[in-house]
Amino acid sequence: DGMNVLFIVVDDLRPVLGCYGDKLVKSPNIDQLASQSMVFSNAYAQQAVCAPSRVSFLTGRRPDTTRLYDFYSYWRVHAGNYSTMPQYFKENGYVTLSVGKVFHPGVSSNYSDDYPYSWSIPPFHPSAEKYENDKTCRGKDGKLYANLVCPVNVTEMPGGTLPDIQSTEEAIRLLNIMKTNRQKFFLAVGYHKPHIPLRYPQEFLKLYPLENITLAPDPWVPKKLPSVAYNPWTDIRQRDDVEALNVSFPYGPLPDDFQRQIRQSYYAAVSYLDVQVGLLLNALDNTGLSNNTIVVFTADHGWSLGEHGEWAKYSNFDVATRVPLMFYVPGMTTFPVSQGARVFPYLDPFSHTGGSAPQGQSKKVVELVSVFPTLAELAGLQVPPACPETSFGVVLCTEGMSIVHYFNASEEKAEEGKERCADTDRCFSEEPVAFSQYPRPADTPQWNSDKPRLKDIRIMGYSMRTIGYRYTLWVQFDPNNFSAHFEDVHAGELYMMETDPNQDYNIYNNTSHGWLLKKILG
User: Fold this and answer.
1) What percent of the chain is helix, strand and coil (3-state, nearest 5)?
2) pTM of model > 0.85
3) Cα 425 vs. chain centroid, distance in angstroms?
4) Are the C-beta atoms of 172 and 265 separated by less than 8 Å?
5) In terms of pLDDT, which residue wins out, 492 or 337?
6) Fold designation for 4-412
7) Cis check: omega of the bond before 250, within 30 degrees of 0
8) Over residues 239-253, mean pLDDT
9) Catalytic residue among 50, 150, 387, 397, which?
């Protein structure tokens, strides 16, 4: 009887983790998971915003196939009746459970988190979630505000708790029930932090003295950044503390000291998240399930922390599209564990020192759209077939590919070009590629540039990331028939990773790139 699955997805988490080489962050529990996992250091989301990314990786299809670029349509009605990853596990005899933010709530998951298609029982949402955007942050004057930077005293919060604490408690409760009932399960746990507001227990600030916090390495808007590529971070401007700074729209930089406070609170929120993950994985040990449960850990997209003079997600840069991705597979990424041995002892970020290196690490460029077929293969289920060119009428297929063959391929073996993939035309035998995209309403930043509604989209930025470069074309887009016009290019970007790892020097205009155009058109 196959493995269980614990699928952890974090909201807006870029790979600021010890296991990804970050020197400042304290993330001992996620690092410990990495030390027993296959870690992908070049994993990318298909669109850097919550609902489109989640529907994409949960169905294994790209945004052009789900036709969701905003928050306002349900793919089963609007695009095609696609099976989801949890639905596939459910149809294969698993009890499927959702805790916290897995699907994006609202229209895009039919106001039900896609229940009953995807889940065996109605999804759990923490009751404290409804206070997320309330005035719960105490200002210097003692009054309460709806701030971006929001360390709190948890005992003063409504209900004396926070959403991610409640989600961890519920997930642990469900693990105990599954253990008792001996039911094979697929448990998805969606954590909210470090999504804004950066609201977390205030003691986590102690881990990050402000004098240790630097600005982004490139806090300026790059000279050759096309205006269509810039995201004006409208959502954080609406928070009380940012609004009070009165920065000019769209490029006016935030004051340096406030930039450092945002960065400090993002890190603090990551350590708070790490504690939740630590408690959850420790419960896997306590229930004796760590030796027969696959653990996947990832995020829906990243979050810019001042790089390129930008904040939040909503762009095609690595800081917005790159995500952590790791797979713990008992007996495959680790030696089989003897009954009762502890794989995930809880580590306290306030006292734990010393990192742990990932068990295995692949620098191969991979996409979140590949998680569904990969997890199916790891669990011993039939891998969903590759989608045909047009798949609106196909219920079960994937536009990703299983990346299980990267797990044990030493980097050299993989270099021999023995890449397996079902669809030979799109087989990048020379090098793997990750595609991301982002819509814009206009060529210059305006109030809805970050989150244009479908009817307002006029330009689509298609971006292609390989080990060597990121290439992005901003092309005319017609939302009425979902068509992109690659002959009408509004702007382009090309960054060479070896000489420009932070993507600051756009060389699109001084390069011939006919070969890249051919590649992005597939």
Assistant:
1) 30, 20, 50
2) yes
3) 28
4) no
5) 492
6) Alkaline Phosphatase, subunit A (3.40.720)
7) yes
8) 97
9) 50
